[in-house]
Design brief:
The chain is an alpha+beta fold. The protein folds into 2 domains: about 160 residues, Fructose-1,6-Bisphosphatase, Chain A, domain 1; about 140 residues, D-Maltodextrin-Binding Protein, domain 2 (3-Layer(aba) Sandwich). The protein is about 30% helix and about 30% strand. The protein is built from 9 helices and 14 strands. A hairpin with a 4-residue loop joins strand 13 and strand 14. Helix 1 runs antiparallel to helix 2. The protein is globular and about 55 Å long. The termini are far apart.
Length: about 325
């Protein structure tokens, strides 16, 4: 079954209101307060929607409430069953310090069609083509770049790779530099980083490296609509993470997850800009109103657009 188109505007409204709730706290150096404002708004408004929703990707566990926690049930209890993934404020540091790239993000899928991901790291790789065997987490960085260059009929020096600027990526960064690949290093916000492979105008050919597992699932839900390639492997490096994975039904700690194993069926994805970044513009004050941009996808209708909305200040 497809998710009714009416839910596009409903979930757009959810992410927009969460973004607007955090807007007064931009640059106030309090990432916890900014995050909490977005969380509170998102919870309140999700509970107004006619649905049986359940959080499968959230900000914590039950004992970490008032965050939107994994397993939390939302909605009026009337209507379709949805799996929901949220990051009410992706890039808390960006918002707190008035830096580019803060977003409010939500993804919704039909029941049991969105991967229930543990809060651990994930090794990820993404490109615009859905064709397999071009890139793979098991390949070396050199092989991935050479294969991608061959596929695009170009030279590695004409490719751009996006990855988090972290010490753990030093070897990858050095390898990419040695091949002449152009680098786009990001400080945070690896949902946006992965999504930059989706459209040619973003000028990113490959996203790779280790980031958050929940963020990987959120990015995959949008990349699915663009028919991109995405592969992720969770990193379980301690007993606590392995035990949590077992509780979610994950027993193979070395498994690589393909896109269709992370997200299947119909889905809606919304990412609203709070501060301007590569994906969307941030909130802008104009003529006594706030202008907001949201990156939206809906798989069954092949809807993939950036929509603007205006909100009068009362």
């Amino acid at each position: 079954m497809a998710i009714d188109k009416k839910y596009i505007s409903l979930f757009q409204d959810i992410s927009v209101k969460a973004a607007l709730a955090s807007y007064p706290l931009i640059g106030k150096k309090d990432k916890i307060a900014a995050d909490q404002a977005a969380v509170d708004s998102m919870r309140k408004n999700l509970n107004k929607i006619n649905m049986n929703g359940q959080i499968v990707i959230g900000e914590g566990e039950l004992d970490e409430a008032p965050m939107l926690y994994i397993g939390e049930k939302l909605g009026t209890g009337k209507g379709p069953e949805f799996d929901i993934a949220v990051d009410p404020l992706e890039g808390t540091n960006f918002a707190a310090n008035n830096l580019p790239g803060a977003l409010s993000v939500i993804a919704v899928a039909e029941k049991s069609n969105l991967f229930n991901a543990p809060e651990t790291y994930m090794d990820k790789i993404a490109i615009s083509s859905s064709q397999k065997d071009i890139v793979d987490l098991n390949f070396t960085t050199k092989k991935n770049i050479e294969n991608l260059a061959d596929f695009k009929n170009t030279n590695p020096k004409n490719l751009t790779a996006c990855l988090l600027d972290r010490p753990r990526h030093r070897k990858k960064i050095d390898e990419l530099k040695s091949m002449g690949v152009k680098l786009k290093l990001i400080s945070d916000g690896d949902i946006t980083g992965a999504l930059l492979v989706a459209k040619p105008e973003f000028n990113v050919d490959i996203f790779l490296g280790i980031g958050g597992g929940p963020e990987g699932v959120l990015a995959a839900s949008a990349l699915d609509v663009f028919e991109c390639f995405f592969q992720g492997k969770f990193i379980f490096d301690n007993d606590k993470d392995k035990m949590r994975a077992n509780q979610m039904g994950i027993y193979n700690y070395e498994k690589k997850y393909e896109l269709n194993e992370i997200i299947s069926g119909d889905s809606i994805f919304c990412a609203t800009g709070i501060t301007s970044g590569d994906l969307v513009d941030g909130i802008k004050f104009e003529n006594n109103s706030l202008t907001v941009e949201t990156f939206i996808t809906h798989k069954s209708s092949d809807f993939k657009k950036i929509l603007k909305s205006n909100h009068k200040i009362r």
